[in-house]
Amino acid sequence: MKVTFKIWRQENRNTKGAIKEYKVDGLTEDMSFLEALDHLNELLVLKNEKVIAYEYDCREGICGQCGVFINGRAHGPHDNITTCQLHMRSFKDGDTIVVEPWRAASFPVLKDLIVDRSAFDRIMEQGGYITAKTGTAPEANAILIPKEVSDSAMDVAACIGCGACAATCKNASAALFASAKINHLNNLPQGHPEAHKRVQEMTYQMELEGFGSCSFTGACEVECPEGISITNIAEMYAKYTKAKLFG
Amino acid sequence: MAANKLVFRKTIIAGTGLFLCLFLIVHLSANWILLLPEETARELYNSYATTLRENLFIKSISYILYAFIVLHVIYALLITIHNRKAKPQKYVVNHFLQNSTWTSQNMGLIGTMILLFIVVHLANFWARVKLGMGEIIELDATGNLDVYKVTFSLFHNIYYVIFYTVLMIPLGLHLNHGLKSAFKTLGFYHKKGLRISAKVSLIYAVIISIGFGVIPFFVYLK
Amino acid sequence: MKLDSKIPEGRLEDKWRNYQIKAQLINPANKKKLNVIVVGSGLSGAGAAATLAELGYDVQCFCYQDSARRAHSVAAQGGINAAKNYQHDGDSVWRMFYDTLKGGDFRSREANTYRLAELSAPLIDHFVQQGVPFAREYGGVLVNRSFGGVQVQRTFYARGQTGQQLLLAAYSQLYKMIRAKKVKMFPRSEMIDLVVIDGKAKGIIVRDLVTGELKRYVADAIVLATGGYSRVFRLSTLAIGCNGSAIWKAHKRGAFFAAPSFTQIHPTALPQTSEAQSKLTLMSESLRNDGRIWVPKKKEDIRKANDIPEKERDYYLERRYPSFGNLAPRDIASRAAKERIDAGYGVGRLKNAVYLDFRHAIDKLGIQTIKDRYENLFGMYKKITGIDAYKEPMQISPAAHFSMGGLWVDYELMTTIPGLYAVGECNFSDHGANRLGANSLLQASIDGYFILPNTINNYLAGALEEDIPTTDHIEFEKAEKEVRVIIDRVLNINGTKTVDHFHRELGKVMWQECAMSRNKKGLEKAILQIKTLKDEFWSDVKVTGSGNELNTELEKALRLADFMEMGILMCTDALEREESCGAHFREEFQTEDGEAVRVDENYSYVSAWEYDEGDFKLHKEELEFEFVQPSVRSYK
């Protein structure tokens, strides 16, 4: 299998980048997309060129590190998957594949396809936790949580923090990410004591980080590898309003 | 804790938007008078117009309406500027139609078209009727300003007919996405309810845009 | 040097309590003056960093990923064991302890293993409090399932993403302490060397992976929480970035490496399909509850699976282990698969897989039941392979999965270098020669949250009186210089082969000779092969780019250089242990029908290797079984 990659190359944060073209032969349909890039990198090394920098770690769809924009879609042409789960069989022999880093002011490019997503960590820092020290926990079954509540918390807790939501959003909004964490914790009884504070502080941090606002295009939920629903953003707004009124 | 600018602005846009949606219902139901035969329509329409101008309550509502339009536009503008800054660099290739609708991606553009429409619309009617600009408007048999005649003559200009009709398309698109999003922005997150609200928004948008859109043609053919 | 495991006095049940009673305390005002470095931000690292910070220490935490939330704890699917006995099915701390010890084939310490079981119950309390959405009954209480061939239901889980949920809980607790300014987080920072001053661990050299800058950090104590090293096989279920460099550097600076060859091979991963493959994805072990494993009876059978009639299929696990059948423990199932594949019965493109067939289960239970149980796994299988497993059998294959071995630690989790601790998968403590399913999340968490924060005081109390060195100290200079030399050397070879090429070659040797079954001849050959490969690497590798920039190729090269040395030690260890126990199977030590033969008289010890200028010196920590009698594992 032979494809043409058009890949964003950028030396570092302070330099300008550009798309560069690479013709690659010798790929197979079974290869994952990242393995195809690995293969390209080996060819580059042998040609004495610098390798393309891109991120990955677990390569099984859970760590959230491997996000790139492939042919005009976050994580490539399929809905609800990560880049590492994309395989070359999704492309045709002779295809041109355009690969770009996540684009958002809050995700500056560090090199080639690698961006800095630490803004997400800083949002988490502002309340994406339950304030309780190790060793202070009551007996686990002393806190009864209805299955529906626990299940719906799990639906959002599944967020892998890949950044596809903000990357695909035309406004670079991090609302889906923030809402996932806020709703996970605020809907559980353990998270209630800090619920109002959490929603206010985390949404405020989202603003400070320079993310845009949500205009409900719905693109995020289509690209989210965990299929987190956009209704979570509405729920976050409800919680925010409630916090403002009663918090 | 300072109010979140992003949420605050969106709330203003959603709140004013919902009010404008209500207004459109009232506006449309009155405008349907124009679909009646001329003899009934003229009198009814003119007296309705007079009531709008002179009733104190309606007058004060109208100021709120102006204010809301202005707020809606200003905040939309602010948000758009902010959002542009949040995404300074666009993708070389972006197949956003595979994950969202064209409308949802272009609310700003559509909104601008509607704003253009409103300006023209106000120049055509509000400026003449309320500010007395342009040709002097005659009185009808009952002594009301003959706004019907203003409308009638405007919609016998084929360019205006086309303008008024065609711009109902962006209005419909804007209302469809705007209404259902307003519910979400205001914190309505019941899943089944949101499915219903999406349907309601669609029906509403179709009725409003077609409802307004047919009027110029009807009048033209009268 | 005599290895002192520092096991406290008393009955098994009292040991941990006795330890705590005698442990030193440090007053809160003094804790503020003490500084701890934690390398790794997975479940054990983040748990340790957060808890130490809560206790008042100043913590600096490092990880190579872009965020602490990426650590590979995130990928554990199955669950976490705890002796809560919520299901009222006769579970107890003792039973869990015994299962774990027996599962590890009696090659771990009784006291450590007992403590693991003992602390499991409060750990679940802890995670529930932190907001982990564990599976629940309609009535609101927690659910359990059974896992990994034990007879009770003691596994807690959050869908198929338990590791993720626990890691995120630890990560959020870590960020809580970052906000409180008690932890300073350094992502994209890789520990490149350990600095030992006057025999004590005092600092680390870190490479900033964005700028390439080498940085020095000093502390009163250093905690390594760097995870497993199974990427030495290249193809494994681990994350691509997982590496053994931090513990290897610690080893070279004096920390003993215990049982390096104890590596768990998981039986149900997806097979390799091409040379370019980088990763073997794990399919949850739970599939073996309903799937039947088979290979064709005819060698090199090229028919499609569904075209092979029932009587021409060999359900080899059911044949060999009639009582456990398809649910035989991981090491046994993996070995049996390898045996069939090596004998020429493998299936799939590279003839390296066996079938895992759900047809019988679907016929018996209906497709809906199977969907309810495994829909996400079947979906994942289809995503990766493009095959619909409802219609044809899955192809699975064994893959390297977990390192039971690691830095030798005593009961306090301290290595042989004073002030250097190892927690989680990177140490050798509780699993013996084989780890039970759903025990890895448990060990990582308990080490980080409960044990280390209680034991580190004993050392730090002494550190209070000492002056903390500055980063200008000669040892820092020396260490940094050595690192610089290595980096320059790698970059200047400018040979003809890529890093991945060498990694693939290393992987092949390790997989062939030092994985599921081992023999003397093969291991001796492997050691020579790796040594040759190592020489070739240092003369013919090509790494482009420079050291002063983000250079992923350089990162890979440095990690691989350590893996090659580690591979030699793993083979050396496997060669030295002339018995079969747990995951370590020496072909010379098996019964007539292929079962493992343990040699307790000679090998009831933990091997602890000391680095000796490119060679390794063996120390033995004899295992004394005071409370249980080692028995023979049988799954017939």
From TrEMBL, chain A:
PROSITE patterns recorded for this chain? 2FE2S_FER_1, 4FE4S_FER_2
Question: What cofactors does the UniProt entry give for this protein?
Answer: [4Fe-4S] cluster; [2Fe-2S] cluster; [3Fe-4S] cluster
Q: Which domain of life is it from?
A: Bacteria
**UniProt-listed GO biological process terms:** respiratory electron transport chain; tricarboxylic acid cycle
Keyword Iron-sulfur set for record: yes
Query: Can the keyword Metal-binding be found in this entry's annotation?
Result: yes
Keywords, alphabetical: 2Fe-2S, 4Fe-4S, Iron, Iron-sulfur, Metal-binding, Oxidoreductase
Q: Which residues form the 4Fe-4S ferredoxin-type domain?
A: 150-179
**What GO molecular function annotations does the UniProt record carry, in alphabetical order?**
2 iron, 2 sulfur cluster binding; 4 iron, 4 sulfur cluster binding; electron transfer activity; metal ion binding; oxidoreductase activity
InterPro entries referenced in this protein's UniProt entry, alphabetically? 2Fe-2S_ferredoxin-like_sf (IPR036010), 2Fe2S_fd_BS (IPR006058), 4Fe4S_Fe-S-bd (IPR017896), Beta-grasp_dom_sf (IPR012675), Helical_ferredxn (IPR009051), SDH/FRD_Iron-Sulfur (IPR050573), Succ_DH/fum_Rdtase_Fe-S (IPR004489), Succ_DH/fum_Rdtase_N (IPR025192)
Similarity section: Belongs to the succinate dehydrogenase/fumarate reductase iron-sulfur protein family.
Q: This protein is called what?
A: Succinate dehydrogenase/fumarate reductase iron-sulfur subunit
Record organism: Flagellimonas pelagia
The root-end lineage is:
Bacteria, Pseudomonadati, Bacteroidota, Flavobacteriia, Flavobacteriales
Automatic annotation (TrEMBL), chain B:
The record's annotation in InterPro entries points to: Cytochrome_b-558, SQR/QFR_C/D
- What Gene3D superfamilies does the annotation carry? Fumarate reductase/succinate dehydrogenase, transmembrane subunit (1.20.1300.10)
Name the UniProt key words of this record, in alphabetical order: Membrane, Transmembrane, Transmembrane helix
Parts of the chain that traverse the membrane: 12-36, 56-81, 107-127, 158-179, 200-221
Q: Which GO terms describe its cellular component?
A: membrane
Protein's name in the database: Succinate dehydrogenase
Automatic annotation (TrEMBL), chain C:
Name the chain's protein: succinate dehydrogenase
- Listed GO biological process terms: anaerobic respiration
| Keyword terms of this UniProt record | Cell membrane, Electron transport, FAD, Flavoprotein, Membrane, Oxidoreductase, Transport
| InterPro entries the UniProt entry points to | FAD-dep_OxRdtase_2_FAD-bd, FAD/NAD-bd_sf, Fum_R/Succ_DH_flav-like_C_sf, Fum_Rdtase/Succ_DH_flav-like_C, SdhA/FrdA/AprA, Succ_DH/Fum_Rdt_flav_su, Succ_DH/fumarate_Rdtase_cat_sf
Q: Any idea where this protein resides?
A: Cell membrane
Record's catalysed reaction(s): a quinone + succinate = fumarate + a quinol
**GO MF annotation: an example:** electron transfer activity
Origin species, per record, is: Flagellimonas pelagia
Which intervals hold domain FAD-dependent oxidoreductase 2 FAD-binding? 36-441
Q: Which residues form the active site?
A: R330 (proton acceptor)
Cofactors, names only: FAD
Tell me which EC number(s) this protein carries. Answer: 1.3.5.1
Lineage, broadest ranks: Bacteria, Pseudomonadati, Bacteroidota, Flavobacteriia, Flavobacteriales
